[in-house]
Design a protein that fits this description.
The protein is mostly helical and about 90 residues long. It has helices spanning about 1-10, 15-30, 35-65, 75-85.
């Protein structure tokens, strides 16, 4: 029973991190699950969700850089102008 609650907390962070953390705190306050388990489940859900978004952005980075968000390419003179003004990290 407690394992399904923890998995549900971790998965619910994908929809709303704030509500999942509040729900975890309320469940811990009622004594349904230990507080440390709620923190770990919510933390794991947030980490996995952020890692998934990072991987999705990383895989799409090259095509977005070439085409842009609108799907059409930028003319070459504009690319050179904007690239010279952006900081290189």
């Amino acid at each position: 029973m407690a394992a399904s609650i923890l998995i549900g907390l971790a998965l619910s962070t994908l929809a709303s991190e704030d509500l999942a953390l509040i729900a975890g705190g309320l469940l811990a306050r009622e004594g349904t699950i230990p507080l440390m388990h709620a923190v770990i489940a919510c933390g794991a859900g947030v980490y996995i969700g952020d890692l998934g978004l990072w991987c999705a952005g990383r895989s799409r980075r090259r095509s977005w850089r070439v085409r842009g968000a609108s799907g059409r390419g930028l003319p070459k003179p504009r690319c050179g102008w904007s690239a010279s003004r952006l900081p290189r990290w």
